[in-house]
Structures are given as structure tokens and as C-alpha cells.
Amino acid sequence: MESIRLIKPSLKPIQTKSKLAMEAAEDEPLSPSARLFHEPNFNVHVLSIMGSKSRINPQVIKEQLVHTFVKHPRFSSLQVVDEKNNGEMKWVRTKVDVEKHVVVPQVDEQNLQESPDKFVENYIHNLSKTTLDKSKPLWDLHLLNVKTSDAEAVAILRIHHSLGDGTSFMSLLLACTRQIADPDKLPTIPGNKKRPIDSLDQYSTSKGLWPYVTKVWSFMRLFWNTIVDVLMFMATTVFLKDTNTPIKGRPGSEFNPRRIAHRTISLDDLKLVKNTLNMTINDVALGVTQAGLSVYLNKRYGGDKKDKGATEKNNNLPKNIRLRSTLLINLRPRTGIQALADMMAKDTETKWGNCVGFVLLPFKIALRDDPLDYIRQVKATIDRKKKNSLEAICTFSISKLALKLFGIKTSSSISHRILTNTTLCFSNLVGPQEEIGFYGHPMAYLAPSSYGQPHALMINFQSYINKMTIVLSVDESVIPDPYQLLDDFEQSLKLIKDAVVERGLCLE
């Protein structure tokens, strides 16, 4: 199509390993983490939903996939059961027929029985009822040339979680894109800024006994918080459950299809709050989530009352609600998009895979008079969890140890109990700072999600240029109105931003 700017020269193939190294690793066994995702209660599929500003040319996509995406060994290998080795699974390279992985349904938009947005949403909902065919590499790409309210077309990349973690998938996806303004350049994403020198650092440069006291105190606090968090983790595995709120998943929720809804908000609004209160985007996103969940649950608890308008103003929330999220923490260092591209270019054995720990993050569900209290409270919690505790590293290590000592079945059962005893899963991914094209197709938004997890609610925040997309993956039997929840998130951000502006806190 003339409206699509083709990439010239073509994207360079993703280099993975030398031919000799690839032949040596051809029968490489699946890692224990990868095997875990083949258990019936952990059959998780990751989705990357991409809105395009132009209609998608399937032929261009297929031609470019051959030279980039399928060059990665994980996406050109079968997962085969090795009967000679106690039924263990191994990677076996195979020739990829792109035609079998790219699905292009013929859609007559004029004869749609529903709105285009609803059609795409229902398509993804029906997709979540299926699993990937194990007779070929576990990924596929669906191209829908349907004009929605926020895109001219939609692409849905589906990948089995056994192939790697979300950060790995995002790195691969971004390595297949280029900047629209300069088709020869990879996208750029914000790097991790160094933490400003705080009071403890200042004391460490002073003379005398005080620097040693502060270091000992910091170590003791880190040690104590880690012990407490690990004990809470173990208690959650055995008996400690979240309150049965209206958004908590029921037994067997992982087998139910998912309704995936998204809402794009202004990233500048989040940055205004972040800069004013000296926080991170992740702090603000979690604060907005806590506020939105509180408002939504208040409505659900008051749903049986006659005057629903009055119940929204009244406090219908039970006291002492225990509601926790598994917060995904990437344990792989990230310094920018080039580092993510290098992850796939070389040494994929050590740099590709499932390398994610998680922390159990409690949300304090309550209606607050001051909207900023939602963010202040969650910031204090996440600072303790991420800066003054080794919970993420410990949970990752415990999971690996359980796999080695007790095997896949027991480890799967332990991990499943952790998730079913908590309420939701949350993640926040940083996206490109400039507009990018997926094989020459300008992207309108990125919306990552998944299905197959025990939680009835999964929340993903994904930034892209000056936008932030909130993506919900919900079990409709538990959360029948995901757009109401998105409304509550959006309204909560507005109230928080307005509170900052009205008090004259915002910086000039």
C-alpha cells in the first residue's frame, strides 16, 4: 500500500548466536520456569495489542518477520517431549512457515453486526478461549484491518509465556520497530536515573562514627524487612488469604476467557504529579490504581442498595479489607532500548528467559478526603518493598529452589496458591519516547496483557510517547464492567491532578 512507508533498507536480522553455538544448543532442555508454564493451572499466554495509524499490509509484515522475528531461536523452535529423558521437554529448531503464524481474517466492516471496537474486543475475547498449537513454535500474529475509535487497524501478537518474560517480549517487539522520523534508528526508552544523594549519602562522607552507624542501621532495616516479607510470602503460600471482595477470582478462574479493555490517558498528567510530589511514574500509577479500586469497590458493595447515587457518596466499604497485588519486578538490569536489543542479539542463553521476581503489595482500600493520600500511602509502601527489602530477589530464588527440590507439580501448586490467595497482578512497562513503526506501520498505542492467570484482574500500565495506556484483563464472571473500573481510574487521576494544581503545588 502506498500509505505505508516501507522500511528501506530492510531491518537487519536479529543475530542470536554463531551457527555452531546454535547447533550445539538445538536440543537444549526447557528451563524449570519455562516448564512451569506448561502446567494446566499456569498455561499463560501473553498478548501485545498494537494499534496502527494506517491499514496493515500483511505481505510486508510476513516478509519482515522472516528476517527478524523468526531469527530468534525461541521463536523458531518446537518444545518437544524427550521420551528418552523421563519425559523432559527440550527445544528443537524447526523451519518456520510464517503463513501458518500470521492470521488475517477477512472482515467486511460495512456488514459488522457490532461496532468495530466491540468486534476487536470480542475477537480478543474469543482468542483467549484458545491455546497455541504445540506442533509449531508457540506464537502467532493476528492482523485486523478494522478501523476502531483509536486506530486504523489492530495487530495482536500472542506468545506463550514459556518462551520468556514480559520484558524479554517487549525487547523483541521494540527491536522489530524503528523510529518513524528516522527509519534507521531503534526506539529509545527512558533509562533509570541515578537516585539523588540523600541524607544518608551525605552522612557517609562525613567523619567520625556516624557513617558506620547509618550503614549498620540501613543493613539491619534491610535484613528485618526482608525477613518479614519472606515470612508473609510463606504465610500466603500456606494460609494467609485476601478478603473475598467482589474483584477476587474464584477457583478455576484461570480457565475462563478474558475480556481485555484499555483506556489511554495523558502521560503528562502523571508526570505533573510525579514531578510535583518528587515521586516516580510507578508511584503515581500505583496510587491511581489504589484510588480507583477503592471507588470501584465502594460502588460494588453498595450495588444492592436502592439509591445508587447516594451509595457512591457514602462509605460502603467493610473495614480491614486485605487486598494485595503481585507486583512484577524485572530482575534483569535495563539501561535502555539498545541494551534490550543486545539481549536478543547475543548470549540469549543467559539473557533471555523468565527472570522476574515479585513482591506482595498491599493496597489500603478506603475512601479518603484528600486524593493525594492514596499516592503518599502507596509510595511509602513501595519504597519499603523495593528500596529497603530484598523480597523480589528472595521470591525469585525461592521459586527456583522449589522447582529444583520438589519438581514441577509441587512448585506449580505453590505458585498457584500464592496467586489465588492474592487479588490481582500489576505491572508497569516503560515504552518508547518517540513514535515508532512496526515494519513501517506507525503505531497509535501499545497495550500488553495476558490470559490464563489465576487472578480475575490483571492491570498493566504501558507508556508510549506522551500517552499512558491502562490495560485490564478481567474474568467477566467476576468483573462484568471493566470500563467502569477504567472510568474510576481516569477520574481518580483527574482528582489527584486537580488537588496538586488547586493547592499551588505544581512547579513552574
UniProtKB/TrEMBL annotation:
Gene3D superfamilies, sorted: Chloramphenicol acetyltransferase-like domain
Reaction equations catalysed: a long chain fatty alcohol + a fatty acyl-CoA = a long-chain alcohol wax ester + CoA; an acyl-CoA + a 1,2-diacyl-sn-glycerol = a triacyl-sn-glycerol + CoA
Keyword S-adenosyl-L-methionine: no
Pfam families, alphabetized: WS_DGAT_C, WS_DGAT_cat
Topology of the protein relative to the lipid bilayer: Single-pass membrane protein
Protein family (similarity comment): In the N-terminal section; belongs to the long-chain O-acyltransferase family.
Keywords tagged on the record: Acyltransferase, Cell membrane, Endoplasmic reticulum, Membrane, Transferase, Transmembrane, Transmembrane helix
Compartments, record wording: Cell membrane; Endoplasmic reticulum membrane
Top-level taxon: Eukaryota
Domain O-acyltransferase WSD1 C-terminal: residue ranges: 352-497
A GO BP annotation: triglyceride biosynthetic process
GO molecular function: diacylglycerol O-acyltransferase activity; long-chain-alcohol O-fatty-acyltransferase activity
Record has Transmembrane as a keyword: yes
Pathway terms, separated by semicolons: Glycerolipid metabolism; triacylglycerol biosynthesis; Lipid metabolism
Protein's UniProt name: O-acyltransferase wsd1
Cellular component aspect of the GO annotation: endoplasmic reticulum membrane; plasma membrane
Domain O-acyltransferase WSD1-like N-terminal: 61-285
SUPFAM superfamilies for the chain: CoA-dependent acyltransferases
Entries under InterPro entries matching the protein: CAT-like_dom_sf, O-acyltransferase_WSD1-like, O-acyltransferase_WSD1_C, O-acyltransferase_WSD1_N
